[in-house]
Specification:
Elements lengths: L11 H13 L6 H15 L2 H32 L8 H11 L1 H13 L6 H4 L12 H11 L1 H8 L15 H7 L4 E5 L5 H15 L4 E6 L7 H4 L5 E4 L7 H17 L4 E5 L2 H10 L3 H15 L4 E7 L11 H4 L3 E7 L3 H8 L12 H10 L4 E5 L4 E4 L9 E2 L4 E2 L24 H6 L15 H11 L5 H9 L7 H15 L1
Parallel strand pairs: 1-5, 1-6, 2-3, 2-4, 4-5
Antiparallel strand pairs: 6-7, 7-8, 9-10
Helix pairs in contact: 1-3, 2-3, 4-5, 5-7, 9-10, 13-14, 14-19
């Protein structure tokens, strides 16, 4: 037996704070006072002119360094660019947790925007001129060539680096490595079409991954998107049911996903609608806890999530601040849905230099054979959307069915007496291999998973609020609160 645990897992917020601390530690400026004192000393020793010039130079460098630090902190907090500012063992641990391609992507992004990454971060980059390839093509080349540099930094890589996609190969980039995605687009922007093509590629490249799709629309015209690509499909026509029934249906679907064994990918469609529904039902905290738990601890266990939403205002979905940095962003825009783009550029969803004039977006849509364009975080640029196979069998633009379109979808009725979320029976625990490991909170999380969520919430909530959110009960003398508090202490004291 051994307690040696070489891998360190932190929450997105913890990594951001660590990167900010490292950037702040570099601030060794003399500042305004130091500039004045240095100027006076040199004026006394040499001449007044020398003192003035020296003081001005020191003051200029002080302001420049302060600007550089503030800019780096903004890159860390607003855009989740962490890897570029870590060094030593912290960078090794971050590479281990989020993967080499993600780290190279972040460092390349920082270099393109004039930041000065740490020496260790720069060692991950290939030995080539920064101007050798266009900015939109750098990331794909960097990922493939950074392997030897990482080997020098942290030893032998335990998992192979995926084959890097060619520039503008959106489907290849989405499917080579399964990771969390945040997919934004108005109705008819091509979200379903793009996702179905990516899932088709994932089934070929990652056949052991279970694709779990939650679809509250139940649109018959989209049935072809799922056939042969989705392993577990939970569908219902939510607008034709009572909100309380949809809430129970959704909870049951999440429960089934949680209990599904092995590597798995959850696609949460219509997340904007579902989050609004859960908020109205008083379940907003539960909804956010589900998202945070998957983002904080899911990736290391082979659990990933693709969130599909209509607009970029995703705070109610639980995707904000540091959590947002753990998602690969994809937005799809049509020439007819530029209002969505206007809402997009009003948020921090896009890097500042990728908030293009609406006219440029309109022109990109004109270049596309399907009248759409997209922004993808890995490429960090906008491109016309190429023509993709339409597996649904329905042309939304022409509003006509194509040959092979399936006509009928059966809505799944919610279970009238469904159990609380993820409260598995002893038999279910045994069948899913969890019988010997203690579980906590209504989400059935392990101790390490709960600790990760506590760390993620520590910066914004106190102890009582954390317990109330994770255990879904209010402070008081109730049996539920006493049990929740006892579990909380047990987790921290173990």
């Amino acid at each position: 037996m051994t307690n040696f645990k070489p891998e360190k897992s932190r929450s997105p917020e913890d990594w951001q704070e660590l990167a900010v601390e490292r950037v702040d530690s570099l601030d060794s400026n003399l500042g305004v006072g130091g500039a004045i004192i240095a100027g006076l000393v040199l004026a006394a020793i040499a001449s007044p002119l020398t003192g003035v010039l020296a003081g001005a130079l020191i003051l200029y460098r002080s302001f420049r360094n302060t600007y550089s630090i503030n800019s780096a902190e903004s890159a860390i907090r607003d855009y989740g660019c962490v890897a570029a500012f870590l060094e030593g063992n912290d960078l090794k641990d971050y590479v281990q947790q989020v993967g080499l391609p993600e780290c190279v992507n972040q460092i390349s992004w920082a270099i393109d925007r004039g930041h000065n990454p740490s020496a260790d971060a720069q060692s991950l980059m290939p030995k080539q001129s920064a101007s050798a390839t266009p900015a939109t093509q750098k990331v794909a080349a960097l990922v493939g060539s950074a392997t030897s540099a990482v080997s020098r930094l942290r030893g032998v890589i335990t998992s192979p680096v995926p084959q890097s996609p060619v520039p503008n190969d959106l489907i290849g980039a989405m499917s080579d490595r399964i990771r969390n995605h945040l997919i934004i687009g108005a109705q008819g922007s091509g979200k379903g079409l793009t996702i179905s093509n990516a899932l088709d590629a994932i089934k070929t490249k990652h056949p052991d991954t279970t694709i779990f799709y939650i679809d509250p629309k139940g649109d018959e015209k989209e049935t072809g998107y799922f056939t042969g690509r989705v392993d577990i499909l939970k569908r219902t026509k939510a607008l034709e049911q009572k909100p309380s029934a949809v809430v129970e249906w959704f909870k049951a679907a999440i429960k089934e996903f949680q209990s599904t064994a092995g590597q798995k990918l959850l696609i949460l469609d219509e997340a904007t609608y579902l989050s609004s529904l859960m908020k109205s039902a008083g379940e907003a905290s539960w909804f956010k806890s589900v998202i945070i738990s998957l983002v904080s601890v899911g990736d290391s266990q082979g659990w990933n999530i693709w969130i599909v939403a209509l607009n970029p205002n995703t705070d109610d979905i639980g995707v904000s601040g540091g959590v947002r940095s753990q998602f690969m962003p994809l937005t799809l825009v049509t020439a007819e849905s530029l209002t969505t783009y206007t809402a997009l550029i009003a948020t921090k969803w896009l890097p500042v230099d990728r908030k293009l004039p609406s006219e440029d977006i309109h022109n990109l849509c004109k270049e596309s054979p399907v009248g759409r364009c997209y922004y993808y975080g890995q490429f960090n640029d906008w491109f016309p959307l190429p023509a993709l196979p339409n597996y649904s069998g329905y042309d939304r633009d022409a509003r006509e069915r194509l040959e092979g379109c399936l006509d009928i979808v059966q809505a799944e009725p919610p279970e009238p007496d469904s159990e609380p979320l993820n409260q598995l029976t002893d038999r279910e625990y045994s069948d899913s291999g969890h019988g010997s490991e203690p579980r906590f909170t209504p989400l059935n999380l392990t101790r390490s998973q709960v600790l990760a969520m506590i760390n993620a919430l520590n910066s914004e909530l106190n102890q009582t609020e954390i317990i109330e959110r994770l255990w879904q009960c209010k402070k008081g003398g109730s049996a539920a609160w006493k049990e929740a508090y006892a579990q909380f202490k047990q987790i921290l004291d173990t």
